[in-house]
Automatic annotation (TrEMBL):
One of its GO terms (molecular function) is ligase activity. The gene is rimK. Its cofactor is Mn(2+); Mg(2+). It is an enzyme of class 6 (ligase). The keyword Amino-acid biosynthesis does not apply. One of its GO terms (cellular component) is ribosome. It comes from Roseovarius phycicola. PROSITE patterns: ATP_GRASP (PS50975). Residues 269-452 form the ATP-grasp domain. Its EC number is 6.3.2.-. The keyword Oxidoreductase does not apply. InterPro entries: Asp_endopeptidase (IPR008503), ATP-grasp (IPR011761), ATP-grasp_RimK-type (IPR013651), ATP_grasp_subdomain_1 (IPR013815), Peptidase_aspartic_dom_sf (IPR021109), Rimk_N (IPR041107), Rp_bS6_RimK/Lys_biosynth_LsyX (IPR004666). This is 30S ribosomal protein S6--L-glutamate ligase.
């Protein structure tokens, strides 16, 4: 009995239309060459990535001859590296990948070598290995199978047919902590290549034609995305590195401008005020003669006096009385430190809520409670956390706060006040351990889902240079 699962025998002419769905190439004209063993695909910007045990290759394809402005990004695992002789006898060492070929509703896996075929009229050559036993060749004919059309590259359907290819992602971090390890672990679990880059060891070539980022004596490769984990002590340099990636055209989860603004507490409060985000009454002044007026603008004691450069609760002081507030302000001024004075929200009772925002959605929230006797709820200072349900108003406030800085990933800290939620801070490098542990959610996985959706490959139409 014949095997009903075996593909139907197809007849090919010397040229046929095919598709490569694994690579997101829905229509390609291929030349049939039974003299060649392995098929070859026109590819450029060929670059390897991933681990030595499971190497991958990324490359781009011009599917339409004469249309170098239309580019499709692709990636695939490397199955071999093989020396191939071209028709003119030249030998070339090529990467070999495996991909599904689809013709007339049938599909099967084929091996493909990657090479520059820009001088060839056909973007792909089909060798013997792709023919298998179910293809017969009519060498004098062409297009014996259903003809496809290049028009598909100009339709909305192109986004739907794109595969979830492996991405190359850089995590800008100087620390080997839970968040960095989780970003690497989860990214690799999803098939991506994730590299941790020490921000301070990056240096840049700044020019008009070819801006670059270098690291340890080498130019960094093209990344699909950068996840910034910039420490407060290197905000300025970290932002400069991110700006360079932005100049190159790399997608950065958090933009340099948003990181810089969120770290400057005075500027951050001005941004949130402009976006009508609820926050505690806040005042700032430079002159010692304005201390009394400064306190009066905020309200009555107790008050919070906060250094502009404070992080993780450091440099934040609770002044129980007006006199205590004046003493703290005088001390900070004596140190030539910049600070804010804020109203103390008594009803919060040493608790705040951290809302984790990813891609314009609140994906998780936790209530943080300060250690006994401490008005600060930071987990780094001995506080505890548990999952909490937030109200619609709290959700909208957190989203508006993150959006005002343009952040794709943000930890928005807010207080539950009688007058409604009050945002304390928007953190552009929120820790993942506390929120994942307290909620039981795979927050890092949600971040990667957002990255994949934003950098999923679609045809790129490059602008042609003006003549």
């Amino acid at each position: 009995m014949a095997d009903s699962s075996a593909p139907e025998t197809l007849q090919f002419g010397w040229e046929e239309w095919i598709s490569l769905p694994d690579l997101g190439v829905p229509a390609l004209r291929a030349k049939v060459d039974t003299g060649a063993r392995t098929s070859a695909l026109h590819a450029f910007d060929i670059e390897t990535f991933g681990s030595a045990a499971k190497p991958k290759v990324r490359f781009t394809v011009h599917p339409i001859p004469g249309r170098d402005d239309l580019v499709i990004p692709c990636s695939a695992p490397i199955v071999d590296r093989r020396e191939v002789s071209s028709s003119n006898g030249e030998k070339e060492l090529r990467f070999v990948i495996e991909s599904t070929m689809e013709v007339a509703g049938q599909s099967w896996p084929i091996e493909i070598t990657l090479t520059n075929r820009s001088s060839m009229t056909s973007r792909m050559l089909l060798g013997r290995q792709a023919m298998k036993d179910h293809i017969s060749i009519a060498a004098t004919d062409r297009f014996l199978q259903p003809e496809l059309n290049y028009d598909v590259y100009h339709t909305k359907r192109m986004r739907e047919v794109q595969p979830n290819r492996a991405l190359r992602i850089a995590v800008l971090s100087r620390e080997d902590n839970y968040s960095t390890r989780r970003l690497v672990e989860e990214g690799e679990k999803r098939g991506h290549a994730v590299e941790v880059i020490n921000t301070t060891r990056c240096y840049m070539t700044i020019n008009t034609l070819a801006p670059e980022v270098h690291y340890d004596g080498k130019r960094l490769p093209r990344y699909d995305a950068v996840i910034p984990r910039i420490g407060a002590s290197i905000t300025a340099y970290g932002a400069a590195v991110i700006r360079q990636f932005e100049t190159i055209g790399t997608y950065c989860v958090n933009p340099s401008a948003g990181i810089t603004a969120s770290r400057d507490k005075l500027y951050a409060h001005q941004i949130m005020a402009r976006a009508k985000v609820g926050m505690p009454n806040t005042a700032f002044a430079a002159s010692p003669q304005d201390t009394g007026n400064l306190i009066g603008l905020v309200g009555t004691a107790p008050l919070i006096v906060k250094l502009l450069e404070s992080t993780q609760g450091k440099g934040v002081v609770l002044a129980e009385t007006k006199k205590a507030a004046e003493s703290v302000i005088d001390a900070f001024r004596g140190l030539k430190a910049n600070f804010l004075v804020q109203d103390f929200v008594k009803e919060a009772a040493g608790e705040d809520i951290r809302c984790l925002v990813i891609g314009g959605k609140v994906v998780a929230s936790m209530k943080r409670t300060g250690a006994e006797g401490d008005f600060r709820s930071n987990l780094h200072r001995g506080g505890s956390a548990k999952a909490v349900r937030i109200t619609k108003t709290e959700r909208e406030t957190a989203l508006r706060a993150a959006k005002s800085f343009g952040l794709g990933l943000a930890g928005v800290d807010l207080l539950r006040a009688e007058a409604g939620p009050k945002v304390l801070e928007v953190n552009s490098s929120p820790g993942m351990e506390g929120i994942e542990t307290s909620t039981g959610k795979n927050i890092v996985g949600m971040l990667y889902e957002d990255i994949e959706a934003r950098v999923r490959p679609t045809p790129i139409r490059r602008r042609k240079a003006a003549k």
